[in-house]
Design a protein that fits this description.
The complex is a heterodimer of chains A (200) and B (190). Chain A is an alpha/beta fold and 200 residues long. Chain A has a domain of 138 residues: Glutaredoxin (3-Layer(aba) Sandwich), CATH 3.40.30.10. Helices cover 32% and strands 18% of the residues of chain A. Chain B is 43% helix and 21% strand. Chain B contains 7 helices and 7 strands, in the order ααβαββααβαβββα. In chain B, helix 4 crosses helix 7. About 9% of the residues of chain B have low confidence. The chains are: A alpha/beta (200), B alpha/beta (190). The interface between A and B is large, with 37 and 41 residues.
Amino acid sequence: MIQQKRLATAAFFFVSFLFAGFLPVLGASVPADSSIYDPGHLAPIDSSTSLKVGDLAPDFSLPILSGGSITLSQYRNRKNVVLSFVPAAWTPVCSQQWPGYNITKDLFDRYNTQLIGITVDNIPTLYSWTREMGRLWFPVASDFWPHGAVAKKYGILRSNGVSERALFVIDKKGIIRYLDVHDINSMPKLENLIDELKKL
Amino acid sequence: MKSAYAIGMIFIVLIALVPKLVKGSEQLKVNSDTLASLKFDAPESLADRKYLKLHDGPNFRLAEVGAKYVIIEIFSMYCPICQRDAPVINQLHDLMLKIPTLKDNVKMVGIGAGNTPYEVSVFRKKFNVSFPLIADDNFAVQKALSQNIRTPTFIVGKLSGAGKVEIIFTRVGAIKDAGEFLKELLAMSK
């Protein structure tokens, strides 16, 4: 009788394992972007910038990932500049926007333009995150401390402390020629940016 | 005995929950009817249209590709994994072109999820992609998938010639070895 009970228990565990555990695991797949945190759909824009086309772009200095710092005005009279603010590391759209720009260096070069990527993340986070993207050809600046100060200066700091997804095209005189405070949930179209560079 | 059953029940619940706790770990399901019915802009290139054996017209459906099988890569110009994987996918296409039975019976097409024609052309030029890439800037392909698009995703469909696509293979994530992937597909089609 005891042996029958043991057999029944063993059979129960076997069936449990087979139907509840083993089969779903066989069907599992590895996500292509397993490290990416999905914040869900967010309010498209959560700030209001007073900057407009024709304004002088506010100057700033920020530490960059490769060491040292970058100052916007160092490009004055030398190169056009695109500032690409992205909200946060390890999130869906942001994690693809810069890899897209990373394969278009020739387009930025053609229009004598320096791209600068900016987030409010700190340097160690940016280090880990951008390693997933491959080797980026453009500087990545950290607007971490004072937190989001540059994003705030540009009027694009959201109420939760991250920046908007925003593009600023700044000409050699330091004048804003185009700005796109974009829906945070979607990718700005590359051709729109390149068309603006053509106009410079 | 009661305690054994209780432990068994806890075991069932825990194991059943595990796949749900791991984000995105569920198997991709493709609605073949929806996929077959999606309409895309036909490639501008005459060579691409000839390769896919498409009829004249501004649009086409995947079910209209003139082959027995179609390998679909859902990619994005912005996806770093797709960028790294591009040489392997090119190699896969080159391998298939060298095998006479595959050359005419299997066609490859890339769908640039969320990408405009311009963005697709940037990717194609950058990685010298020799098979057709189609823009899908409105994420139409999402309608056929059971979960959010993750790139790259590979779908192999068997084409009946009657407007139907039978899904015989799906994979989410990069292909590390073109030769091994081809062997896998060949073994599966037997």
